[in-house]
Structures are given as C-alpha cells and as structure tokens.
Amino acid sequence: MNTTQKQFSLNRRLALSVVMGIACAATLAAETVTKLPQGVPEAWLAYTPAQAPPLWSVALAETLMARHPDLRRAWYQPWNYVEGYVLAAFERLHKATGDRRYLDYMKTLVDRFVDGEGRFTGSKLDNLDDFMTGATVVALYDATRDERYKTAAAQFRRAFDTYPRTDGQFWHNTGGSVMWIDGVFMGQAFTLRHASSIGDAAWCFDEAVRQITTCARHSQKGDTGLYLHAWTDQIAKHKWADPATGASTDVWSEGLGWYALVVADALAVLPKDHGGRAAVEDIYRRLAADLKRTQDAASGGWFMIVDKGTEPGNWIDPSGTGMFIYALQRGIELGLLPAADYGPVVKRAWTNLQTFARVNDRGLVDIHGGGDGICIKNDYQGYVTHKREVNAKETIGGFLWAAVSMERGRLEALKKP
C-alpha cells in the first residue's frame, strides 16, 4: 500500500469506526468470534467500507486475489480441498464475465503443482479432500486444451482404482474405515468434471451414483431427506458412532451442504437414461423439501444443526446457507424444483447470507460467523460450541458459490462483445 492509500485508509477508519461498530454490534453480539490469518497485510481495495459492493461475487473474488496472490499460502495446506472449492467459483466467474484474471488465478495455483510434462506433485492422494482441487486441473484443460492438465488429471482418475472403500463408499482418508458425507463432494466433484470434460464417462457417472446413493443409505436420518455427518463399520473405535447404525449424531449444515452441491451438480450432467438417475433425483427432491421445511422462518438462513433450530446454542450458519442457496437455485434452473415454491426460499436465504458479509476499513470483504475446519463431533454440543471465525475458509467458499449463482445475470452483463 502506498502513502496515499495508507492515509486514505486511515481517514476512512477514523470516519467510519463508529458506524462500523454500531452496524456490527447486533449481528456479532451473540457470536464467539476469533480472527484467522488474513493474508497479505497491505492488501487494499477501493470498495467503500460498510457499504455493499455492486457485486458481492466480484468484490469477494478480488479480495481473495489481493489477500492471497499465492493461494498455496492462504490456508493450512498448499494443496487441499479449499483451494478447489474456491476456484470452482472462479471458473464460473470467468465463464460469466470473460475476465481473464479469474482463469489466470486458477493457473497460478495449479501450475505450481503440475510440471511441464504434466506430472502432478501436490499430494499423495490418500485423502478425498485432496481430490477436490483436481476438478480445477480438469477445468484448466477445458479452458486451455493444454495436454499437461489432461495428463495430470489422469493421475487423479487412476488413484480411485485402488482407493479403499467400505460397502462401495470411499473412506474419507486411507487411515481408517470412516465415510464422511463431505467426502462424497470432494471425490465426485472431480469424477463428474472428468466425465464432462475429458471422458471415461461410464465409469465416472457410475461411481458418482454409487457414492451418492451409498452415503444416503447409511447416513439418512430416519425417513427424512436429511443426512448425518458420517458413518463407520468400526463402531467400537469411535465415540460418535451409533451402536446400532455406526452413524454420527447430527445433521451438520456444512456437510449436508457439500452433499447438496454434488447431488445438484450430478443431476446437471448425469445422462437422462442412466440407470441410477432416478435414485439421485429422489435423493435431491427429498433433500430440497426438507431444506425448505427447516429454513429458519425468522432469518431465512439454516442452522448449524439443520433440524434442531429450537435447541439451545444453535446458530445460523453462513457456510451451509451459502451451499443450500446454490444447490436449490441449481435445481430451479435445471427444472427439478418449481420456481414458485423454491424461488422465495432461495431469495430469503440470499438476503440473510449477505448480512454476514461486510466491507472492512481496507475495502476488503470479510465474511463473519462461520466455523472453520469442523470435523466429526461426538454430540450436538460439540458442533454448536465450535468457535465462529472471521473469514473461515469454508464459509468464504460457500458464500462465493452462492454469490456467483445469484448474481450470474449481472455478471454476464459485464462480458464484452
């Protein structure tokens, strides 16, 4: 930041400190807020503090590029699911606007891990989380037709051939027989993209259906369309596992959100005549109906534990809310959900989600109120007492997916002829 920018930023801080304090007080009063590392200290943008930007999707993407010019250093590992989760939205921004910056940002990360011969060096691929960003490798092949990316993507595809599974569902990592609902997203975001952009479609589509339906069979909560966080066949090893079913205790919004994302995206590409499509459509429609039922009437968001909104300590989760916005809007666009019934649900949720976003005194977008790095908990209290953060990495991704989806028409208007 140069001298003029520093002085301008200081003036804005002084002038707006009271306003910002008042505006944030009501929302943050009930939160336990800690602050995660915020990237490059001198990052600065010209957005006006305490005012909504013209497009949240663009402002948040520009914030990420300013804060994290090297995305390897943004979060806890250089190559992991969060990078791919965020960059999936960057690809949509590039397609909508034609702005090359978004594609270049994707390349800046991936080219650190894919060499001139197409060898991928970022991970041993012994955890489903590490497969997610493989979808970005495929996206770059789609956009550039650079054979290096196709060669690298083949390493991800082959890794599934020997990856361990129980009853057909992949372990979350190769260290033990535990199946996470979010692992379905992490793995199948890649296979679905591979099928659409590179090939091996029969195997990829069959695998995606297997992962979605096996998870549903083991993790469904009663006769609802909601699904629990995890299950295991090694029940004695895990305090969270139900003695009879091996399933975990609660419907965690973020995990259910990842599942909703991959089910919706699967239905966008799964052939109409695929033998498993009817089962996936049934899962999606039942899930959508229960999301409509459990949406908080007061706020328009969804609770951290989706179906326990009346229990003490529960809170509206911006991460899950962002995911559900995308998943439901996707269903409306695909003709799977009636717009008259679900359009108002999505609009109310988007209005709520924007209350968690604020432009700070350096013109950068902060997303408040999400939990960071949440793993399987032993009980309800373990989930709802998890600390909420400023710019929790998963919450940034969920917000960006939702924002691009809800602002797509205005984004497309930015594209030059």
Supply the key terms.
single chain; 417 residues; mainly alpha; Glycosyltransferase; 3-stranded mixed beta sheet; two-stranded antiparallel ribbon; 6% strand; disordered N terminus
At a glance:
This protein has 417 residues and is mostly helical.
Poorly predicted parts: 3-30
Using the CA coordinates, give the radius of gyration: 21 Å
* Biggest beta-sheet profile: 3 strands, mixed
Rough outline: globular
Fraction in beta strands? 5-15%
CATH topology: Glycosyltransferase
Main structural class: mainly alpha
Please report the distance between the alpha carbons of the first and last residues: 34 Å
Q: Can you tell me about this structure?
A:
The chain has one domain: Alpha/alpha barrel (Glycosyltransferase). The N terminus is likely disordered. The strands form 4 sheets. It has a 3-stranded mixed sheet, with no helix packed on it. It has a two-stranded antiparallel sheet with strand order 2-3. Helix 9 crosses helix 10 and helix 11 runs parallel beside helix 14. The longest helix has 26 residues. The chain has 417 residues and is mainly α. The chain is built from 15 helices and 9 strands.
